[in-house]
Amino acid sequence: MEIIYLFDPLCGWCYGFGAHMQRFAAKHADTIKFTVISGGMVTGERVGPLSQIAAYIKDSVPRLEQLTGEHFGKAFLDDLNGEGKTIMDSTPPSRAFVILKEQFPNHQVELAHALQSLFYKDGLDFNKTESYRGLCAQFGMDFASFEAHFNSMNYQLAAKDEFQEAARYGVSGYPTVVLRHGSQYFMLAHGFTSSDTLESTLQTIVEKEKLEA
After folding, report:
1. What separation, in Å, do the N-terminal and C-terminal C-alpha atoms of the chain show?
2. Are 188 and 1 in contact (CB under 8 A)?
3. Is-contact 161 183, C-beta < 8 A?
4. CA triple 77-78-79, angle to 5 deg
5. What range defines the domain where residue 187 resides?
6. CA-CA distance, 207 to 104, in Å (whole number)?
7. Confidence (pTM)
8. Alpha carbon distances (Å) from 53 to 15, 30, 48, 58, 61
9. Where is 181: in which H helix or E strand?
10. pLDDT, tens digit, for every residue of 12-44?
11. CB atoms within 10 A of CB 118
12. CA separation (Å) from 93 to 9, 55, 87, 118, 131?
């Protein structure tokens, strides 16, 4: 049995969902494998300054904070409400995520939320390698090694492979959570879902389908 969490580092609703997903994952860490895949939501022609989508995000922030219990940091909000110069590009943080989850495969859910917090809470620029120094220290990866990986062609290609893997699930948005049992797949969540709802949905599927871990 495996649970696949499809997210994107620049997905604000995934940021709001992160703590709920962590609580859910912690409850089943000993019995279910958790895999997190970065989807590449902002690539190609979508790459551009925060100002291009600032109006949409501003409209979403109050509801997202109220519904999820997560809050955006001052540095991010200052940029959002200011010039919005930060370039939104999913590839650099997805590259960082691939590097870190390779080193810490049993902490993928925790990594995903910690990564997003760099941007949405701390207001750091995902396009700058230095922005990941604290994250490396948090999880125990040598920053010089991370930096070498981050700037290598191998991990640029690995991020693209990650996007292609996410695309194979055919999801239309993030966050999405899928339960895999053998060759069977079940939708656990599409869009923000509380940890309690995730749990009840999982139990309903397990009982209905008579699945065994």
Report:
1. 5
2. no
3. no
4. 90
5. 2-209
6. 32
7. 0.96
8. 17, 40, 9, 9, 12
9. strand 176-181
10. 999 999 999 999 999 999 999 999 999 999 999
11. 21
12. 6, 23, 12, 10, 10
Q: What is the pLDDT of residues 153-212, one digit of tens each?
A: 999 999 999 999 999 999 889 999 999 999 999 999 999 999 999 999 999 999 988 887
Looking up residue 195, the CATH number of its domain turns out to be 3.40.30.10
Work out the burial of residue 19: count CB atoms within 10 Å of its CB; fewer than 13 is exposed, 13-18 middle, 19 or more buried. Answer: middle
Burial class of residue 116 in the structure, from the number of CB atoms within 10 Å of its CB (0-12 exposed, 13-18 middle, 19+ buried)? buried
User: How many structural domains are present in the chain?
Assistant: 1
d(CA 61, CA 77): 10
In one-letter notation, the amino acid at residue 105 is P
Q: How many CB atoms lie within 10 A of CB 11?
A: 22
The tokens describing 153, both together, are: 């062609």
Using the structure block, give the residue that is written with the tokens 């696949």.
4
Residue 122: which of 61, 175, 79 has the closest Cα? 79
